[in-house]
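This protein record is not my work; I was only asked to verify it. The record follows directly below this note.
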Amino acid sequence: MAARIILICFGATVLFVAVRRMRSYRLKERHMLIFLFTALPFLLLAIWPSAIGWFALKLHVQYQTVSLLCVAAFLILVIFELLTIVSLQDRKISTLAQIVGILMEKHGMGDRPPGAEKPIQSPDPTRR
């Protein structure tokens, strides 16, 4: 019974925080869905505690193995989603840095002195 209460409290807390942050515009809808899918397994196990045992019985696998596989799959999916978000933000930051560099160069705010032209390139050693 205590495990059920803990699962319900954890799932409800995650859902409450996600909805509250989304309403205050601090959390995008995409990230809210991540929180939603994070909380659902906990609420499902609180409602149907023998779900893992049922899956273990149907798959003819031990209970502990199914539990481990469920936890591993859940963590892999969460990590994959978070890495996707990080990759997207990294690309956006790189693009933004390049645009800022181009604009600074265009407006003469680069790190070269104002009167300097393009750097002199050394002659090609293969041409004579």
